[in-house]
Amino acid sequence: MIDYVKGRVVHWDTEYVVVDVRDIGYRVFTPNPYSFAKSDDDVTIFTHHHVREDATYLFGFTTREEQSMFRKLLEVSGIGPRVALGILAGGKPESVAAAIKQENIGFLTKLPGIGKKTAQRMVLDLKDKLDAFHTGFASAAVGLATMDDLFSEPEGNADGGKAWQEAREALMALGYTSAELERAWHSLQETVKPDETVDSLMKRALQQLFKG
Questions:
Q1: How far apart are CA 134 and CA 156, in angstroms?
Q2: How many C-beta atoms surround the C-beta of residue 186 within 10 A?
Q3: pTM here?
Q4: Domain ranges of the chain
Q5: Cβ-count burial of 165 within 10 angstroms (0-12 exposed, 13-18 middle, 19+ buried)?
Q6: Count of alpha carbons within 13 Å of 50, Cβ hemisphere only?
Q7: 175: how many CB neighbours lie within 10 A of its CB?
Q8: Cα 208 to chain center, whole Å?
Q9: CATH number given to 4-61
Q10: What CATH architecture applies to the domain 72-134?
Q11: Cα radius of gyration (the chain)
């Protein structure tokens, strides 16, 4: 089991980073690859070593909390590594844990790749297994309590169609400001395709936000 890797990030892609560890490059799939883009120093990436019959993958995280939540999510029927990564790209561990503990299906279904049935399974399978994620529950609960207001009264630029509005509302619920999202949209709008999905727009917007 590879618990973490420490080295210099030498390459970024939309889904992974490559970490040079003593002249060996490890490809590590991570929720937000561009969160590592601002440092030329060595970084520590906490990993989950995932082995299948046909492949071996490393999934990486900036904190132990993300690593632990990722492993908890894999316990849910129907959630694989890719969906678990998408969840952590869309929400912080304490916010996801708070939503599960509060059975907040509305919040969970705003996360990438999560429908109502999967959200219900998350609550059923994990509600009593998240005591370790108590840190930040109070502030997370405040944010979740106002979600309906955020979703019913979005502010700012109304351009971009329904997909962007849904992506924007979900990102606002995760703590991003209108100004930050307007800047992200400004960078994205010329390349948005008519059939682009909410999940795709959220992922691309997050890349822009982490680039700063």
A1: 33
A2: 11
A3: 0.66
A4: 4-61, 72-134, 147-211
A5: middle
A6: 20
A7: 13
A8: 14
A9: 2.40.50.140
A10: Orthogonal Bundle (1.10)
A11: 17
